[in-house]
Design goal:
Largest sheet of chain A: 6 strands, mixed
Largest interface: A-B, 25 and 18 residues
Number of strands of chain A: 10
CATH architecture of chain A: 3-Layer(aba) Sandwich
Structural class of chain B: mainly alpha
Mean pLDDT of chain A: 90
Helix content of chain A: 25-40%
Oligomer: heterodimer
Number of helices of chain B: 12
Shape of chain B: globular
Largest sheet of chain B: 2 strands, antiparallel
CATH topology of chain B: MetI-like fold
CATH topology of chain A: Rossmann fold
CATH superfamily of chain B: MetI-like
Order of helices and strands of chain B: HHHHHHHEEHHHHH
Structural class of chain A: alpha/beta
Strand order of the largest sheet of chain A: 6-7-8-3-9-10
Radius of gyration of chain B: 24 Å
CATH class of chain B: Mainly Alpha
CATH class of chain A: Alpha Beta
Order of helices and strands of chain A: EEEHEEHEHHHEHEHEEHH
Low-confidence stretches of chain A: none
Number of strands of chain B: 2
Helix content of chain B: over 70%
Distance between the termini of chain B: 41 Å
Strand content of chain B: under 5%
CATH superfamily of chain A: P-loop containing nucleotide triphosphate hydrolases
Distance between the termini of chain A: 44 Å
CATH architecture of chain B: Orthogonal Bundle
Number of domains of chain B: 1
Mean pLDDT of chain B: 82
Chain lengths: 250, 293
């Protein structure tokens, strides 16, 4: 059940997932596959269940029905060690959620030290490297309150990367940023994608999705309406709902 | 008249606002606050003095001299005994310490995910938050034995200690509520991001949530300390040599009705001088931390 997974199989496999919050059914049977090294973008109108889907993948939100497998392991198996799963799946949020009482460097170092129990010196070296990678050298000792939104979001990305995840989930990470700072965050994500990190992005940045995505999914009212590689998706959308959405956005 | 007093108030506000981080003790006693306190004290004193003049037979000590005579007793208790205002302070420290430690644990019970733990913690909190302190005090005094036997060891439980425990109970319940409120005031995003970094619930609470709560908890916690200190004279009713008991003893010994008001005014002044700076400091911290949220 566990060790059967090989890299040629989907790293994330989602089958017929249903999820309701009270009387509202947010996901009405969603299925998709993500292969290792792939960048998948999920687009769609607000409230179509995109963020919920991401949260189900690292078990922040339990599902009602269906199956989600990460590296062959069923995520919503009661016996699954959620903490082990989350070590493999990094997540970055719209509202950054940095720990405000810790500096940028400490934010990056905390989880590897306390969760993975790795030696402090080694973690610090890696954290400094990651801070440089997201172009924030010199900001190591700044508190989140002293950083701009774009800078905070890049620290949040570095914080997730410090756990050496196999998959990164990005939940509308640029939605709270002003247009100039959106770019600096997108550059960071593009670099990650180019390095071969498996990424799932929920985004409203169509240009970015088209440029970086390997596969685009369009969700509306809890189902996947249409999907395909960016060239086909953006140029030859067949479903009227997709076309209506794209014509509003583009 | 009202115009001048308003301008005095404004001036005092400006003075406090202008003061920096340092020099807190200087700013705690603003000229206005001191003036109010001493005007009250002096007028009571004068009233007593006038009364004494009218009914005097010329052989008694003046009011001030009498107060001065009793002051050491009321502040520090009888010689070679622990008591007086110092005992009130000691009781307030101890009750606060016990109440804080138990209250933190009870507060964690209030946010527990285990339903029975949460229910029991909730019941305890509600019971002690909504009971009159004096009744709790009698309850503890009458319920606990005067000594404890642990194996061969006999631990005496003096009255003042039992009274301390009695006062610690409502503090415990209120500290628990402060903890619960502070934890709930932390945005859920903090929990989510900690969870997604594979922190366990306990680690999240200990390393991420509670450190952020400390700042928010300090002002209400200090507020409860001031309330507790002002409530310590309650222990005089259960037979402890605190400042209140000793003031009454002094009055009984003097048998002079003109001393009633000045004596109690002196006692009020002791509490005022101790509690007022705490109140000022609390307001200051509240303002300081309010900006950052």
């Amino acid at each position: 059940m566990t060790s059967a997974w090989t890299p040629d199989q989907p790293i994330v496999g989602i089958r017929d997932v249903h999820k309701s919050f009270g009387p509202i059914e947010v996901l009405k049977g969603v299925s998709l596959d993500v292969r290792k090294g792939e960048v998948v973008c999920i687009i769609g109108p607000s409230g179509s269940g995109k963020s919920t889907l991401l949260r189900c993948i690292n078990a922040l939100v339990p599902i009602d029905q269906g199956s989600i497998k990460v590296e062959g392991q069923e995520v919503h198996d009661a016996a699954l060690d959620k903490l082990e799963l989350r070590k493999k799946v990094g997540m970055v949020f719209q509202s950054y959620n940095l720990f405000p009482h810790k500096t940028a460097l400490e934010n990056v170092m905390m989880a590897p030290i306390h969760v993975l129990k790795r030696p402090k010196a080694e973690v610090e070296a890696q954290a400094r490297r990651l801070i440089r990678k997201v172009r924030l050298e010199g900001k190591e000792d700044a508190y989140p309150g002293e950083l701009s939104g774009g800078q905070q979001q890049r620290v949040a990305i570095a914080r997730s990367l410090a756990m050496n995840p196999d998959i990164m989930l990005f939940d509308e990470v640029t939605a709270a940023l002003d247009p100039e700072t959106v770019k600096e965050v997108l550059v960071t994500i593009r670099e990650l994608a180019e390095e071969g990190m498996t990424c799932m992005l929920v985004t409203h940045e169509m240009g970015f999705a088209r440029e970086v995505g390997d596969h685009i999914y369009f969700t509306d009212r809890g189902i996947i309406v249409e999907h395909g590689p960016p060239a086909t998706f953006f140029n030859n959308a067949s479903d009227p709902r997709t076309r209506a959405f794209l014509s509003q956005i583009l | 008249m009202s115009g001048t007093s308003n301008s005095v108030v404004l001036k005092a506000v400006r003075v406090t606002a202008a003061q920096g981080e340092s020099g807190f003790m200087a700013s705690a006693f603003t000229p206005r606050a001191l003036a109010v306190a001493f005007a009250l004290f002096a007028s009571l004193l004068l009233a007593g003095e006038a009364w004494a003049q009218l009914s005097s037979n010329g052989e008694r000590l003046g009011i001030l001299a009498t107060l001065w005579k009793w002051m050491p007793l009321i502040l520090f208790g009888p010689p070679r005994e622990f008591g007086g205002f110092t005992l009130n302070i000691l009781v307030s420290f101890l009750a606060m310490a016990i109440g804080t430690v138990t209250g933190l644990l009870l507060g964690l019970g209030l946010i527990s995910r285990i339903t029975p733990v949460r229910s029991v913690a909730w019941a305890i909190t509600q019971f002690f938050r909504n009971s009159p302190w004096l009744v709790l005090l009698f309850f503890v005094m009458l319920l606990t034995p005067f000594q404890l036997r642990l194996g061969g060891l006999t631990i005496p439980l003096p009255g003042w200690f039992k009274a301390t425990v009695g006062l610690a109970l409502p503090i415990m319940a209120n500290v628990a509520e402060i903890v619960r409120g502070a934890v709930n005031s932390i945005p859920t995003g903090q929990w989510e991001s900690a969870e997604s970094l594979a922190f366990s619930r306990l680690q999240t609470l200990w390393r991420i949530i509670l450190p952020q709560c400390v700042k928010r908890m300090i002002p209400p916690w200090m507020n409860w300390y001031a309330i507790l200190t002002m409530a310590t004279p309650l222990i005089s009713i259960v037979g402890v040599n605190d400042a209140m008991t000793l003031t009454q003893d002094a009055l009984a010994a003097e048998q002079r009705t003109e001393l009633l008001m000045p004596m109690y005014a002196m006692l009020l002044l002791f509490f005022f001088v101790y509690c007022y700076p705490i109140a000022r400091w609390t307001i200051r911290l509240e303002r300081k931390y309010a900006v950052r949220i």
